[in-house]
Specification:
Radius of gyration: 15 Å
Largest sheet: 6 strands, antiparallel
Distance between the termini: 24 Å
Number of helices: 4
Order of helices and strands: HHEEHEEEHE
Shape: elongated
Structural class: alpha+beta
Number of strands: 6
Length: 110
């Protein structure tokens, strides 16, 4: 599994020293999702953010009768549910769905 795109992305934000990048990468683990809704049931699941290596992710809202797509995230992109992370509460009507097979490198705060 290549982390080249993740490392490129990190360096595009800031010229981190190699030892910092290596320490960050050492803590990462891949997570695979099949096509499905990704729900937040526990506080750690609320903190959905990371880097999409393969596949796509859909962020959408539900109302009484419809779904409304809010954003798509694709390969080599960072994804974050900022509001849920800050509040440490799952969102009521907003959801995540893997579009097909998704390989993501989630990162959870310590």
């Amino acid at each position: 599994k290549s982390l080249d795109e993740l490392i490129k992305s990190l360096h595009s934000v800031h010229p981190f020293p190699d030892e910092q990048v290596d320490a960050f990468i050492a803590k990462l683990k891949y997570k695979k999702f099949s096509k499905k809704r990704i729900s937040a049931k526990t506080p750690s699941e609320v903190q959905l953010y990371g880097f999409i290596e393969k596949g796509s992710l859909r962020f959408y809202a539900l109302n009484e009768s419809d779904e409304h797509t809010l954003h798509f995230f694709t390969e080599n992109a960072w994804v974050a549910d900022y509001e849920s992370f800050i509040s440490q509460q799952p969102k009521g009507r907003e959801n995540w769905m893997a579009i097909g097979s998704l390989l993501m490198i989630p990162w959870l705060a310590p």
